[in-house]
Amino acid sequence: MTGPVPVTTATARSGSIGVYLDAIGTVTPVYTASISAQVTGVITAVHFREGQYVKKNDPLVDIDPRQYAAQVVEAQGLLDRDKNILAEAQMDLDRYKEAWSKNAIPRQTLEDQEKVVSQDQGTVKNDEGTLEFDQVQLSYCHITSPIDGRVGLRLVDPGNLVSAAAATTLVVVAQVQPITVIFTIGEDDLPQVLQNMRGSKQLKVEAFDRTQSNLLSTGKLNTIDNLIDTTSGTVKLRAQFDNKAGTLFANQFVNTRLLVNTLANQTLIPSSAIQHNGNTDFVYLITDGKAQMRTVKSGQTDNGATAVQGINPGDVVANSSFEKLQNGSQITISKVKLPSTSDSPENNVP
Q1: DSSP summary character for residue 326
Q2: 272 and 336: one domain?
Q3: What confidence category does residue 325 fall into, taking pLDDT thresholds of 50, 70 and 90?
Q4: Residue 125, helix vs strand vs coil
Q5: Is the pLDDT of residue 167 over 90?
Q6: Of 140, 174, 194, which closes a domain?
Q7: Is 71 part of any domain?
């Protein structure tokens, strides 16, 4: 006759448990700017360091501006000349109007001068456009960051010749704070997500590493794509993360958990305390020093805890030595959980 079976125990408790949807996602910057040269010239300065965080309008690259500065001076001079020609024509028109009022000149002379003034006005507008264009070209010689973000590896050096026609990327800036994660869920899960998004409710999203052992960051669901992919029966979702610690990296694969609902007033026990016999789940309820088999109905599982029906909060259940337990077995409570192939130590709740 064998003696009592030493077991560790767990006490059922009342609490809330989350309903999650798990998916694989890709970290995606909100904005990614691949910056190319819009003018042709020699690079005179590179102002950033590889991997540096930059703010909007921070200088990145300078291209030799002398050619374009000269074009601006030329356009400005042409505009000044044509403005004075227009002013001279306008003065002549004023004289002709006064002479016409005294019948000193024919009507045709006055009308011809009016057309000369209109032509000169058009010339001035053309000069103003040319000057503005040349000023824009000059501004392209000083390249600044269009967004807040992190720059990548340096792709060009001072002295390199770049061409607007070549469309060579000079630097890539990716916004990483905040950053987003794009993941997919099945179309069958979409209704409960939409239902819980109604109003101003925000759904929490957790991002874990590839092994699902380390929580990288916690964010919120931002939006849902407008189309379901008919080939896979899935829909894309985008979650946003502050990423203050920089734990999420662009194009990184992560495991996501979307909290779609929270079930309150549930009876919770460690998942490791639940045993299975075919389609039947059961636990060993500890009463009067004996283990009694009790059939339960398992529900939602989260973080090593499972919601069950069939026992009450406060009930004590066995959480080890299942290979030795039988219905009615005498037990003795052990303070240290015994190793067992059917146990999950990380889920143990002594």
Answers
A1: -
A2: yes
A3: confident
A4: helix
A5: no
A6: 140
A7: yes
Asked whether residue 310 carries a pLDDT value surpassing 60, the answer given is yes
pLDDT digits (tens, 9 = 90+) for 127-139: 999 999 999 999 9
- For the beta carbon of residue 315, count every other beta carbon within 10 angstroms: 19
Give the model's confidence band at 345: pLDDT under 50 very low, under 70 low, under 90 confident, else very high. very low
Residue 226 domain flag = no
Total number of domains constituting the chain:
2
Domain endpoint, select from 88, 119, 140: 140
List the CATH number of the domain containing 95: 1.10.287
Q: For the chain, what's the residue count?
A: 350
CATH number, residue 294: 2.40.420.20
What phi, psi does 59 have (nearest 5°)? -70, 140
Measuring CA to CA, which residue among 12, 13, 18, 10 is closest to residue 264? 18
For 105-110, the CB contacts below 8 A with 24+ separation are none
User: What range defines the domain where residue 90 resides?
Assistant: 67-140
| Number of Cα atoms under 13 Å in the Cβ half of residue 286 | 25
Mean pLDDT of all residues in 196-204? 80
For residue 282, count other CB atoms closer than 10 A to its CB.
Answer: 17
CB atoms < 10 A from the CB of 109, how many? Answer: 13
d(CA 127, CA 79): 5
The rounded percent of the chain whose pLDDT value lies above 70 is: 94
Write the pLDDT tens digit of every residue in 236-280. 999 999 999 989 999 999 999 999 888 899 999 999 999 998 889
Kindly tell me if the per-residue pLDDT of 4 is higher than 60. yes
Within this chain, do residues 268 and 338 fall inside the same structural domain, yes or no?
yes
Using CA atoms, how far residue 218 sits from 65, 174, 200, 230, in Å, is 46, 20, 18, 30
pTM, entire model? 0.71
- Let me know if residue 182 belongs to a domain: no
- Which parts of 30-141 are beta strand (E)? 32-36, 41-46, 53-54, 59-63
Domain presence at residue 293: yes
Decide if 319 contacts 349 (C-beta within 8 A).
yes
Phi then psi dihedrals of residue 109, to 5 deg: -60, -40
Residue 276: which of 298, 291, 292 has the closest Cα? 298
| pLDDT score for 2 | 64
